[in-house]
């Protein structure tokens, strides 16, 4: 059964300055709370004596280009979180209070204020930038919902949202990200009730496969995680959840049957004009990175290097001059499908004859490109396409079964929303 029994979050966002266009993190966080700003403004306009006046004034005066989010807690949720707050502020015992968090956009600084709603006084201040690096319980007031008592936090939703390519995001992407987090939690809860689990060895194997696929050593992976504000322990937890989630999905969809030969044939006849091979190309490139400040200089350099090319010394030139360190060791070689590289780069390659050499400027800089081979798309025969069609139809049928299963879980779940 679904129920909504908590106070609405109160959020306010300052007007963006012109340079905010250069801060994607801030922009994404703004999108995440956009639907709730109307609630914030309504509360601000109609409150005769607002207990949040002091924190709002502090925010406006001392935290330019920052994000303020405020939530009022009471009842059981307030009591649970109060136990964590008391580890930072001894003697804290309010049954009802506001949590106001200020996040400085573009940095990881985050400060949490606990406010007494009866008088607007701040009774506790927690620097989450420091607190999250200690052994004390981590605090977060960005609570969006609880699913059978399991919390859903804003940062979980943002993690899903941020994985959506920017050009594919729509005005419903944030809600879809929230739904995905909720659905995954329901599936994981169901998996736990069925006794699904994974071993440490299975987690190790999955991490090793990840490192192999991405060309990473363990040291590089750990450093990348640190740079992203995470850790290898958190990464292992994510891998573990993903493996359990896959067990659950496999169990839910295990009875889905393969399509018949006639189903595959029907799909092929209805869609054969769109069933083609993917264009591929094999090239070698020499790259000089460039920006607005040095573009003219780099253009002259690339022209000078091109004049040294004699048809047989391209690898020597790449080794000596190319700034694409990832490809120098393989003589600048790239074997790729259409859609994997920059559009302006691909447009040149797929419109050129094999054996030709081109100079092109892209958003990265200047390239000398040697086109070795181009394979243009062609229609697939039924025999070539049928395995792919069969796999696609199985996937569609499994998704339908999974969607219905999730719908049943949602109908039976105790979902408490804090979004109004």
Walk me through the topology:
Blueprint: E1 2-3, E2 10-13, H1 24-33, H2 37-46, H3 53-62, E3 66-74, H4 75-85, E4 96-104, E5 110-115, E6 122-127, H5 128-131, E7 143-147, E8 150-153, H6 154-162, H7 173-194, H8 200-214, H9 218-227, H10 232-252, H11 261-271, E9 280-289, H12 295-308, H13 314-321, H14 325-328, E10 333-337, H15 343-350, E11 357-361, E12 365-375, H16 382-412, E13 415-417
Parallel strand pairs: 1-13
Antiparallel strand pairs: 2-3, 3-4, 4-5, 5-6, 7-8, 7-13, 9-10, 9-12, 11-12
Helix pairs in contact: 6-7, 7-10, 8-10, 11-16
The N- to C-terminal Cα distance equals 17 Å
Q: Shape, please?
A: globular
Number of strands: 13
- Main β-sheet description: 5 strands, antiparallel
Structural class of the helix and strand makeup? alpha+beta
Average of the residue pLDDT scores: 81
Whole-angstrom Rg: 27 Å
Question: What spatial order of strands do you see in the largest sheet?
Answer: 2-3-4-5-6
């Amino acid at each position: 059964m679904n129920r909504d029994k908590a106070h609405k979050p109160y959020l306010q966002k300052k007007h963006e300055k012109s340079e905010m266009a250069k801060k994607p993190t801030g922009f994404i966080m703004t999108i995440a709370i956009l639907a709730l700003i109307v609630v914030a403004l309504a509360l601000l306009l109609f409150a005769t004596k607002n207990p949040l006046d002091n924190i709002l004034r502090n925010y406006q005066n001392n935290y330019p280009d920052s994000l303020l989010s405020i939530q009022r807690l009471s009842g059981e949720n307030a009591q649970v979180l109060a136990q964590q707050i008391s580890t930072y502020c001894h003697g804290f015992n309010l049954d009802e209070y506001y949590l106001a968090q200020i996040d400085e956009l573009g940095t990881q600084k985050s400060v949490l204020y606990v406010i007494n709603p009866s008088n607007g006084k701040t009774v506790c201040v927690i620097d989450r930038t420091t607190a999250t690096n200690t052994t004390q319980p981590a605090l977060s007031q960005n609570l969006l919902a609880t699913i059978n008592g399991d919390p859903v936090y804003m940062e979980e939703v943002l993690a899903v949202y941020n994985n959506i390519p920017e050009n594919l995001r729509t005005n419903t992407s944030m809600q879809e990200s929230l739904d995905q987090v909720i659905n995954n939690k329901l599936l994981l809860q169901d998996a736990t009730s069925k006794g699904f689990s994974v071993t440490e060895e299975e987690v190790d194997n999955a991490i090793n496969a990840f490192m192999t696929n991405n060309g990473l050593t363990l040291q590089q992976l750990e450093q990348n995680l640190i740079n992203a504000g995470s850790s290898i322990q958190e990464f292992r937890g994510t891998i573990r959840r993903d493996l359990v989630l896959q067990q659950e999905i496999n169990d839910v969809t295990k009875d889905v049957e393969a399509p018949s030969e006639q189903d595959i044939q029907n799909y092929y006849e209805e869609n054969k004009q769109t069933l083609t091979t993917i264009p591929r190309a094999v090239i070698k490139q020499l790259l000089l990175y460039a920006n607005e400040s040095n573009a003219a200089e780099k253009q002259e350099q690339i022209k000078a290097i091109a004049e040294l090319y004699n048809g047989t010394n391209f690898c020597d030139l790449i080794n000596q001059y190319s700034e694409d360190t990832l490809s120098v060791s393989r003589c600048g070689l790239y074997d790729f499908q259409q859609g994997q590289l920059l559009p302006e780069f691909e447009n040149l390659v797929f419109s050129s004859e094999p054996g030709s050499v081109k100079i092109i400027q892209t958003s990265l800089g200047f390239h000398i490109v040697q086109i070795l081979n181009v394979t243009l798309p062609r229609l697939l025969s039924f025999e070539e396409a049928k395995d792919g069609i069969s796999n696609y139809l199985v996937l569609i049928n499994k998704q339908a079964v999974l969607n219905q299963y999730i719908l049943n879980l949602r109908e039976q779940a105790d979902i408490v929303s804090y979004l109004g």
